[in-house]
Amino acid sequence: MYDLSIFKQFSVGGKQFNTQLTLSGGGLQGIEEPIPIAWAGVLTVRTDNNTGTLTMDSASHIITTGAIIDLFWSVGGVDGVQRKITVGTVAGTSVPIDLGIGDNLPAATSAVQACIVQKFTPDFIVGDNCKALLAAADGTKALICLYSTGDTVEELVITLPLNGSYDWITGGGTNPIAGKTIDKIHISIADTVNVDNVRFSALITP
User: Fold this and answer.
1) Is 30 left (phi over 0), alpha (psi -120 to 50) or beta?
2) Helix or strand or coil: residue 154?
3) Which of 18, 77, 102, 195 is the most exposed place for a label (fewest CB within 10 A)?
4) If pLDDT is split at 50, 70 and 90, which confidence band does 165 have?
5) Which residue segment(s) compose the domain that 95 sits in?
6) Pairing of strands 101-102, 78-87
7) Phi then psi for 177, rounded to 5 degrees?
8) What residues does 203 pair with on adjacent strands?
């Protein structure tokens, strides 16, 4: 048996509003993995909302032809992320990109962080058995995507802001993976300096 302790605290107008509860489950499934760094670059060519060319800051980047990457950026204080991008033929620091989904690419000359998507196989997570879903990353923006049907159908996209987290608790709205069985988790980060741990957990019914 696992106990999930939930603490929420709000403060406004000098007044405090607190919530505390415990949720119990019979099992815990998920992963915690160190994710390799993203690579800094610039979107030097913007052909359309999901097509263009990156010029990487360093020729030592390890992005290869055919790789799948996620792209992070912050322009004018607004964060964006495009996922599931296919890399074209890489030539030195030139990395052509296409077919991404999510936010539209930013304007040309925008600084970006490109991360090769890491794929992990958890124990099968049956959505109907979940009482809580939790996700967090250490010191970075991150993207966590849950897939079903042999890693072919995207079921849930979790975008984590810097120092942010994600939670769904039973009773707090519709279960985002109800009726689904998760068999693959895709993860990427925006940190171009550090390898950061990213974790996802599902609390299972007794």
Assistant:
1) left
2) strand
3) 77
4) very high
5) 39-116
6) antiparallel
7) -125, 25
8) 28, 132
Query: Is the domain of 122 the same as that of 197?
Result: yes
Residue-wise pLDDT for 44-64, tens only, equals 999 999 999 999 999 999 999
Q: Give the ranges where the chain is alpha helix by DSSP (H).
A: none
Residue length, the chain? 206
Token pair, residue 173, equals: 């709205």
Provide the H-helix boundaries in 79-146: none
Mean pLDDT of 90-109: 98
Question: Do 122 and 200 sit in the same domain of this protein?
Answer: yes
- 165-169 and 2-12 beta bridge pairing: unpaired
Count the domains in the chain.
2
Let me know: does 131 contact 175? Beta carbons within 8 Å. no
Q: Which two tokens stand for residue 49?
A: 């909302």
Please name every residue paired with 21 in a beta bridge, in sequence order, or none if there are none.
6
- The span from the CA of 189 to the CA of 142, in Å, is 4
Same domain (yes/no): 89, 31: no
Backbone dihedral angles phi then psi of residue 152, each to the nearest 5 degrees? -120, -20
Digit-coded pLDDT (tens) for 191-201: 999 999 999 99
Asked whether residue 1 is assigned to any structural domain, the reply reads no
For 37, 73, 119, 175, the CA distances from 127, given in Å and listed in that order, are 30, 31, 19, 8
User: CA angle, corner 177, sides to 4 and 72, nearest 5?
Assistant: 90
pTM to 2 decimals? 0.92
